[in-house]
Design goal:
Elements lengths: L3 E8 L2 E10 L7 H5 L8 E3 L4 E5 H4 L6 H23 L7 H16 L4 H9 L8 H18 L7 H4 L3 H20 L5
Helix pairs in contact: 3-4, 4-6, 4-8, 5-6, 6-8
């Protein structure tokens, strides 16, 4: 492991303190990385102890682009914030992975400068397997934004989303805020 970066990162819930461990020197990154000739693989993750881990090779040409600044940093910083939020409100259920990904993907959409990321979420979206938290969270995002923007259950036609970047960012923020309030609300158990 080479390189440690520490600092503060702004996300919608406030300032998140981050420590990023930049990692190099892997013998093998993963089977997925191997079979895709390095095109697909984990770019990094957040740990519950408050640290971020970043595979430098995944972002070495992207450090000043939204793919790193938003899709990695904002996404993983949202996870760090949510680990604290979920712990404080004793959230630990079967859906926690989906909730974490849903919230982190919403955070990405709030900051992403165009609809390219949303388009990739549309392609990834799938509600058939809740064990695949990334795909299921993408499905929830497309579904919930469809309801907010089009007043329809699920809009899968990309042509209808074109030109809706501002609305996607606006409603992504609204959905994240509503989800946060639902977590903070006392349970009526």
């Amino acid at each position: 492991m080479k390189g440690l970066i520490a600092g503060n990162l702004e996300i919608k819930s406030g300032i998140q303190k981050v420590t990023i461990n930049m990692m190099d020197g892997f013998v093998s990154r993963s089977w997925l990385d191997f079979i895709s000739f390095g095109l697909i693989g984990t770019g990094g993750w957040a740990s519950e102890n408050g640290e971020l881990f970043c595979v430098r090779k995944s972002y070495k040409k992207e450090l000043n682009k939204p793919s790193f600044n938003v899709s990695y940093l904002k996404h993983e910083a949202q996870h760090l914030s949510d680990y604290e939020l979920f712990s404080a409100h004793e959230i630990n259920d079967d859906m926690i992975g989906i909730k974490l990904e849903y919230r982190a993907k919403l955070a990405e959409l709030i900051y992403y400068p165009n609809l390219k990321l949303f388009h990739s979420f549309m392609h990834e979206a799938n509600n058939e397997n809740k064990n695949n938290s990334h795909s299921y969270a993408s499905y929830l995002i497309v579904s919930n934004l469809s309801k907010e923007i089009f007043n329809e259950e699920y809009v899968s036609s990309w042509s209808r989303w074109r030109g809706k970047g501002k609305k996607v960012r606006e409603y992504a923020y609204k959905l994240l805020e509503e989800h946060t309030e639902a977590i903070k609300a006392p349970s009526k158990g």
